[in-house]
Write a structure and sequence with these properties.
six-stranded parallel sheet; 849 residues; Rossmann fold; 47% helix; alpha/beta
Length: 849
């Protein structure tokens, strides 16, 4: 730094001392000249002194003059320089500054740099002009007389934003509106049909939409063949299959949910299979699917010691009846019937013994057949057998196929009920070990496991806490794993985050599931061709499968570039993750459709109704629809609320909404009766005592009036009782070839349907709570933060939404036949308990006690 400062210092010194230096040098030169002329000085001394004086003078001048000059010069120069510099700099720099880039070291501290764009869509708009709007409206008025869209429907049809969220209430006429939206995209904007897709959940809704699509497009002279509509309108499951078929590693695959031995054998030669799952919400397993699960079960049982010990413990707990306290609620409830139970036990023991002998699985090795008399609290009962090796009595139960059988002497007493009471008394009062067997075919294997003989893996029935009943272990595994995966969770990772009370059987069950499920998926993937569950497919190409998506060609994404999703509220986290990943990858690739007038990148239109979200038990949630912009961020999103109801009269609408209105975040959400045939009706929803004979009379009356009828029930066992009362009118309907006029369905099964008169049978009540599902909901960040029971609370709300769906099936008449109201237990919600009977849209016709 010192060497760099000297030139500056010399420069400043010469500037500030220049006037005084000239005079001094002139006088010195004159004196020197006189002295030299007179030769009056010593040359050497004079020269030395001159040099010395110059040095001292320069040094002193620098010390004092520089300091004084700097202070004065700085003050004067700063003022003058500022004025002159600003003027000259402005004049000269104004033009030159445009062309000169000033380079400065470093960067300003406040510069943050570009922000991250998390949008799934580009910032663009559909080129829907006013001219297009007028032309569409004029043509719709010509072709669809009497079906002109409302202002809200036009807003949906003409949405310009890359993302659109449509709240379409019950009966809002959304199907025609969606078709007109597709017409605008294809006919008026020029987007090829190969780049337009509609996704539905079920085959039935897919068929209806395909039919309407072809009908409306034909009015514009656009012919769509069955093949064309089939390409446009698909289910989620059909779409995800395309992703696997385009994969280089998996060109031929089979879906577990579609699996049958015949199809699997044929698929090696099938190039373009377009299977559709009949009902995505049907979780029952076929024989072929159970065969695959059991094969993987056996393989895991043989190969994994920990899994084998877990299953053995589950079998032990299921078969060895634990002692029960006489003060337990179950024992107290049955104590008064002990004498009655003892008197019929000889007949019960013989009846069950004969069923087992008839099945061919009794007697069995290792068990001495009875009956063995045992006295319990002074009453005589009988055990069916005794196992000396385990020092335990054996009580035989009733196999699944025989559970409707009754005692010969007491037709109203089912064998299963009598056996259950008998088990209770043995558990309370018997001091020996007890083994209970109720599966004919697997009893011997179960006994071998209890005796420590490992031959083949045992099957057993298991009931996870909170589920509605026992199911075979494979069904229980499949149900629990599917629920976790629908929430977007990995099964093994989710189980690792669960906690259960000490000694809980569910802890054993879920640990076994965490071992089995990955082994099952691996077993499926090794079949020829490979088999995958749909949940596995969505996971492979969801947000955790980014690398898999990047391996796919553009041809996989282009058919979904402009996507319309119906019943969006039924989406689970796995399908949401897949949709997000697809649009993110499409945007990363800059995929677009180039029309004659514009470049059109990706777009999404979601159509649904949070009040009709009724599949939470399968893992769906209205959260993804209600928080649409959070999950599908976009530069701009259109929101539309379609309030007009073209199905129901106003009192039906108001009655149904009264049960769910508190769930809405939108005060404007309210259905308005708009169908000319019913909008002026004022018929309340009638609530009556359960009377199947009266119900049958009402059904026949409405049938004779030529009206369509839906009879809906909450529980399957209700169907048998109701159907028996409806036989005469059902026979009449068949005779008159009007069978389609009367349908019997569950509340869930009625979704999407409608009828002139709707009959609800039974309350719509929450049936249970589920510890493991609450834990899963918390892991999936569903429910309110800090809520210890997010799933249970969500199910309570869903119960009310289910009642809303059932009631809004009615066009004009709705009857609700209910049993006497029971107070909700443990915070469980009942729709009947929430009915505001003081309001005019409900009429309470129940008998008063």
């Amino acid at each position: 730094m010192g060497s760099a400062e000297k030139p500056d210092q010399a420069k400043h010194t010469s500037n500030f001392l220049e006037p005084r230096g000239l005079i001094g040098r002139a006088l010195t030169a004159l004196a020197s000249a006189i002295l030299r002329a007179q030769q009056t000085h010593d040359q050497d001394s004079w020269n030395q002194g001159a040099r010395h004086g110059y040095q001292r003078g320069w040094s002193k001048g620098v010390d004092s003059g520089f300091k004084q000059g700097r202070e004065k010069g700085l003050a004067e120069g700063h003022e003058e320089g500022s004025l002159q510099g600003h003027k000259r700099g402005h004049e000269k720099g104004f033009e030159q500054g445009k062309r000169i880039i000033e380079l400065r070291p470093g960067r300003p501290a406040l510069v943050k740099g570009p922000q991250v764009d998390h949008n799934l869509f580009d910032d663009w708009r559909f080129p829907i002009t006013e001219q297009i709007k007028e032309e569409v409206k004029a043509t719709v008025a010509k072709h669809l007389k009497g079906q002109m869209p409302t202002e809200d429907q036009w807003k949906m049809i003409f949405s310009k934003d890359p993302s659109t969220c449509i709240v379409a209430g019950a009966g809002s006429g959304k199907s025609t509106t969606m078709v007109l939206r597709l017409l605008v995209l294809h006919r008026y904007l020029g987007i090829p049909r190969e780049n337009i897709a509609v996704v539905t959940f079920t085959c039935e809704s897919r068929k209806d939409f395909r039919r309407k699509l072809a009908e409306v497009f034909a009015l514009w002279n656009i012919t769509l063949t069955d093949e064309m509509t089939g390409r446009i309108v698909r289910t989620f499951h059909s779409r995800i299959l395309d992703f696997l078929k385009w994969s280089q590693n998996l060109p031929k695959v089979s879906a577990f949910e579609f699996f049958s031995l015949e199809k699997h054998a044929q698929q090696e030669d099938a190039e373009d299979e377009d299977d559709e799952l009949e009902n995505v919400f049907d979780i029952r397993l076929t024989t072929e699917q159970l065969g695959l699960m059991n094969a993987a079960y056996q393989q895991t049982y043989e190969a994994d010691d920990e899994f084998r010990s877990l299953v053995a413990e589950l079998v032990y707990r299921a078969s060895r009846l634990p002692p029960m306290s006489a003060n337990s609620p179950e024992a107290k409830r049955r104590a008064a019937r002990m004498d009655e139970c003892s008197k019929r036990d000889t007949e019960l023991t013989n009846a069950v013994d004969q069923l087992w002998r008839k099945s061919g699985f009794w007697p069995m090795e290792g068990i001495e057949p009875g009956p063995f008399p045992i006295h319990l609290k002074g009453r005589e009962f009988f055990a069916n057998g005794y196992c000396e090796e385990l020092d335990a009595y054996v009580i035989l139960g009733v196999g699944k196929n025989d559970r409707k059988l009754s005692l010969p002497s007491q037709p109203k007493m089912k064998l299963t009920g009598a056996t259950t009471m008998k088990k209770t008394f043995f558990q309370v009062y018997c001091d020996k070990g007890l083994i209970f067997l109720d599966n004919y075919a697997d009893a011997a294997t179960t006994l071998d496991v209890l005796r420590g003989y490992v031959t083949r893996c045992p099957t057993l029935d298991y009931q996870v806490e909170g589920e509605l009943g026992e199911t075979p272990i494979m069904q229980a595994f499949h149900s629990a794993a599917s629920f976790l995966e629908n929430l977007g969770l990995d099964v093994s990772e989710a189980v690792d985050q669960m906690s259960f009370p000490d000694g809980s059987s569910d802890a054993l069950f879920f640990k076994a599931l965490a071992i089995y499920w990955p082994a099952f998926n691996l077993y499926l993937s090794r079949q020829h061709p490979p088999i995958f569950t749909f949940n596995k497919m969505f996971e492979m190409f969801g947000e955790r499968g980014e690398a898999n998506l990047q391996e796919l060609p553009d041809e996989v994404f282009m058919p979904m570039l402009h996507l319309l999703v119906d019943e969006f509220q039924d989406c689970g986290a796995n399908t949401i993750s897949w949709l997000r990943a697809v649009f993110r990858e499409a945007r990363r690739r800059r995929l677009h459709v180039l029309t004659d007038t514009a470049s059109c990148p990706g777009s999404l239109m979601a159509v649904g109704d949070d009040w009709q979200s009724i599949y939470g038990w399968r893992g769906s949630s209205p959260k993804f629809f209600n928080d649409f912009e959070e999950y599908f961020p976009s530069p701009s999103t259109t929101h539309v609320l379609m309030k007009e109801n073209y199905r129901s009269q106003q009192m039906v609408i108001d009655a149904a909404e009264s049960l769910v209105r508190h769930q809405s975040v939108d005060d404007e959400k309210h259905g308005i009766a708009s169908h000319p045939k019913v909008k002026d009706m004022t018929i309340p929803v009638q609530v009556l005592d359960r009377d199947d004979d009266l119900l049958a009379q009402f059904v026949e009356y409405h049938f004779d009036q030529g009206q369509s009828i839906l009879v809906l029930y909450r529980k399957n066992d209700t169907k048998t009782d109701v159907q028996s009362k409806l036989r005469p009118v059902l026979a009449k309907a068949r005779r008159l070839k009007r069978s389609a006029s009367i349908k019997l369905l569950t509340y869930h099964g009625s979704k999407g349907l409608e009828a002139d008169a709707v009959f609800l049978v039974g309350d719509c009540a929450q049936l249970s709570t589920s510890p493991y599902r609450n834990m899963a909901y918390r892991q999936a960040n569903l429910g309110a933060p800090g809520d210890p029971r997010p799933y249970d609370n969500a199910q309570g709300e869903e119960t009310l939404r289910l009642a809303y769906v059932a009631i809004t099936r009615a066009k004009a008449h709705c009857y609700w036949f209910v049993d006497p109201a029971q107070p909700p237990k443990g915070g469980l919600i009942s729709a009947l308990a929430r009915v505001p009977f003081k309001m005019p849209f409900f009429e309470d016709l129940r008998r008063r006690n």
